[in-house]
Amino acid sequence: MKPLIGEFIGTLLLVLLGDGVCCNVSLNKSGMKGGNTVHILIGWGMAVMVPAFTFGAMSGAHFNPAVTIGVAIRGGMEWGQVPGYIIAQMLGGFVGAAILMVLYADHIKATDDDATIRGCFSTGPSIRNTTLNFLSEFVATFVLVFTLAGIPANAGDYAANWGLVYGVIVACGASFGGLTGYAMNAARDASPRLAYQLLAPNKGKKDPDWAYGWIPVVAPICGAICASLVFMAVFA
After folding, report:
1. For the chain, which end, N or C, has fewer CB atoms within 10 Å of the first or last residue's CB respectively?
2. Which domain holds residue 78?
3. Which residues make Cβ contacts (< 8 Å) with residue 30, sequence separation at least 6?
4. Using the 8-state DSSP alphabet, how is residue 151 labeled?
5. pLDDT attached to residue 158
6. Are 111 and 121 spatial neighbours (Cβ–Cβ below 8 Å)?
7. How confident is the model at residue 159 (pLDDT cuts 50, 70, 90)?
8. How much is the pTM?
9. What is the 3-state secondary structure (H, E, C) of 163-208?
10. Based on the structure, what is the number of domains in the chain?
11. What would the pLDDT profile of 20-47 be if each residue is shown by its tens digit?
């Protein structure tokens, strides 16, 4: 059970800190409203790195169904563990978003635009194009999973691996974030999107946008599968 607890709490913290950055810079009357993209990049990188330091030794610090599937493909874990990991991650993402709904309740009330509130919890494309949006999430997750797999095993002896994870997340965001918000993770997107649908107030045009929301679920998994297969082909 310990790895599952680690994945649940780790993903909770990832969403709490990551989506918390988005709430902090986007919601009305926040003391940091208006923070820029660099603020978000740094915050999201730290949001992944901090729980990774805490739970890396316990669960491997996946916090992402795509990463878990990629690890299983490369033989880093038994396939029988995968469903439990994914369930723990998805639950953690939902609870993290629900906590933010409470913490930022007054700021959500002060923000009139439903889309702005949704954007604090889930991603969306800057230009809606299903093919290119899918490709963006596919490529971003390919880069994520391929580079994470390439971190030397002995880097973990000095906890340097989690610092490198920070670099990967920031690099992906800096290069791909303007396209679709670089979700790369169903637990970071679909679970908070559901929390928004169920828990956020309706300001008149509340729409969780599941017409787009399937892309941050399916595309990262496809990207992770391809990244793992290419990694094994290159480094086998």
Report:
1. C
2. 2-235
3. 23, 24, 104, 107
4. S
5. 63
6. no
7. low
8. 0.94
9. HHHHHHHHHHHHHHHHHHCCCCCHHHHHHHHHHHHHHCCCCCCCCC
10. 1
11. 999 999 999 999 998 888 999 999 999 9
